[in-house]
Structure formats: C-alpha cells, structure tokens
Design brief:
Cytochrome Bc1 Complex, Chain D, domain 2, mainly alpha
Length: 66
Amino acid sequence: MFAQSCSGCHGADLKKGYAPDLDKIGSKYSSEEIQDIIEKGIGDMPDGLLKGEDAKKVADWLATQE
C-alpha cells in the first residue's frame, strides 16, 4: 500500500522523494497520529489517500520506522 499510495512523493526508501522523509517518522509520531495525518492530510499532503484499515496498516508500519 505504501508503494502504491505514498512512495511517489516520499520515496520508495522513505527519504528520496520531494515530500518529507519518513525513515524516522516513528520517533516523532505514534501510529495513531500517523494514521490521522494519512487520513486528514497535513501541509501539502492531501487527505484521503488511504482510509480506515489501509491507513492503519501503513501507519502501524511507519510507526516502526525510527
């Protein structure tokens, strides 16, 4: 899901895209906070790219990136 919906902006390695790096996102935000950002958007990131269980799965995975 990350590869399909997020890597185009954030980079496949979580840090070589034009959007903010995500390789250490778990040290800054909890899974719940990341899910909220995914679902509602923030800054230039649009809302609704992923929702519900899909957003939760990506958020849980990103929260492990420290």
